[in-house]
Amino acid sequence: MSRNNYIFTSESVSEGHPDKVCDRISDSILDAFLTEEPEARVGCETFATTNRVVVGGEVGLSDQAKLAEYMGNVEQIVRDSVREIGYEQDKFHWNTLQVDNLLHEQSAHIAQGVDATSDKEEGAGDQGLMFGYAVNETPELMPAPIQYSHAILRKLAEVRKNGTEPALGPDAKSQLTVRYADGKPVGVTSIVLSTQHLDPELSSDDVRAIVEPYIRGELPDGWISEGTEWWVNPTGKFVIGGPDGDAGLTGRKIIVDTYGGAAPHGGGAFSGKDPTKVDRSAAYAARYLAKNVVAAGMAHRCTIQLAYAIGVAKPLSIYCDTHGTGNVAEVDIERAIAKSMDLTPQGIRTHLGMNRPIYARTAAYGHFGRAPEADGGFSWEKTDLMETLKNNC
């Protein structure tokens, strides 16, 4: 039986965190290739350290001449990404850092298992299992600790970039410990915020004075009490940030990217991967399905698992767990899912319109719990499958 009264903690990291810098670069490179060709194949990894960015992995376009041309654009994409995040430090500056481009053409052996032919459906780009989750704790049907941890950092990035708070730097981490009563989030017992600041004379108290109003503004009324513990820059000064302070890699923040530890994770990262790779597309589809199950009132909480084999189109399994909150039997939800959406890689990409340059915006502040956008961004957050699921139960 699940607990109703407990505390739970999740963290988020800003777009200037070293790992998020790398996610942003990898997804920006992906977007550039998808702009050229919607069926482009990209598996891009990025490493960043003091004044250096290394990009590697595989890419594929149908026109080999254009592939060579686009390889030449990678350095500028890296610099533009770092500049937009806001790094102009002595030892990590968008205009002076060294860029090593080690991208190469996609392996023919991988392509032969994935590419569709006249007698074979397009297969999954890898084996693996993917989870999606939704819960009616927030309007976005996301776990409250991760959703509000993201919201705090998005707000701080906004006021940093628009000049309202010029003392803040790009690198930051937030962490909320949320108290649950009768299964619902009702308050925050502790708030942790570590943020880079550009003025070395600022103390932790000075930084708290800057950030506290924004933190309070992002949390629901009544969640902060006199007993809430505040830990703002608890180690003291935080002037050197980003990849100069700590090396970064693509794909190291998979729990931040998803549900903050409140739900299972299959282990595959998202950023830098085109949507033939089910690590990404099927995880998005599983979130879409779980969210529609909860939005339709079929359950208050829902976990969906999908599993795939490389080169095989259809999922090997569909699993649903409503954690004792369901109004519909889980086996009936599983059958309804199979009837309601084509879960082959091609089917997912078509249903959710994923062959578009919509991924750089996902690289920070979570891939889920975001509003669907007019150009197709965050299409997996729509709740347009509710009636279909209910009708197929």
Percent of residues in helical segments?
A: 25-40%
Main structural class: alpha+beta
Output mean pLDDT.
94
Shape, per Cα inertia axes: flat
| Estimated radius of gyration | 21 Å
E-strand count? 13
Physical arrangement of strands within the biggest beta sheet:
1-8-9-10
Main β-sheet, in a few words?
Answer: 4 strands, mixed
Structure explained in plain terms:
- There is one protein chain.
- The protein is an alpha+beta fold and 393 residues long.
- 32% of the residues lie in helices and 24% in strands.
- The strands form 4 sheets. The chain has a 4-stranded mixed sheet with strand order 1-8-9-10. A 4-stranded mixed sheet has the order 6-3-2-11.
- The longest helix has 19 residues, at 18-36.
- It is flat.
